[in-house]
Amino acid sequence: MTGRPTHDLDGIVDAAIALLDAYGLPDLSMRRLASELGVRASALYWHVENKQSLLAAVADRIVGQAAPSEGVRATAHALRDALLAHRDGAEVVVSTAALSLGSGAAHRRLADAFAAEGAGDPDRGARILVPFVLGHASIVQQRMQAAQIGAYDADPATVAAETRADFSDGLDALLAGLAPHPA
Questions:
Q1: 38: alpha, beta or left, given left = phi > 0 and alpha = psi -120 to 50?
Q2: Does position 181 have pLDDT exceeding 70, yes or no?
Q3: For residue 151, what are the domain limits?
Q4: Would 101 be classed as within a structural domain?
Q5: Residue 13: CA atoms inside 13 Å, Cβ hemisphere, count?
Q6: pLDDT tens, position by position, 67-87
Q7: Does some domain include residue 4?
Q8: Exposure string (b/e) for 37-58, b if CB count within 10 Å is 16 or more?
């Protein structure tokens, strides 16, 4: 044994999320992450191909932290809460989803919830709801961050709480539009 710390992907993702929460996405670099772990940046590439692969693993972890839920509405709310729980969490998940990176866990969780409710096309429902959940969380998170620096006149926690009803209303409208209509 050399005495040097060994790292695995889980530990690297843990450290990346800690840096994300502390400094935000713009300051989450491979060099900074390596420094935090006490290794050279090149050592990280044994575990992740590039920064986008790292961010995909971070996005999967964030989505994976969504509370287990039953039903489409509860699942959508749990995903929103998980995204808002981490600084720039929504942005990380949006960017990986846009590039079709990561496991697609948000889509799968919503598709499973639709299927459990007997939806005719669970995949279609998830394809429609995922962008809504991600987009809404992104806007709320930007407002929360603006509030933290005084650029938006509200308390960051209040922003999340006050936009929850709007999220629910939008979710209800989308779900009503997805419901089968009588012929």
A1: left
A2: no
A3: 9-178
A4: yes
A5: 18
A6: 999 999 999 999 999 999 999
A7: no
A8: bebeeebbeebbeeeebbbbbb
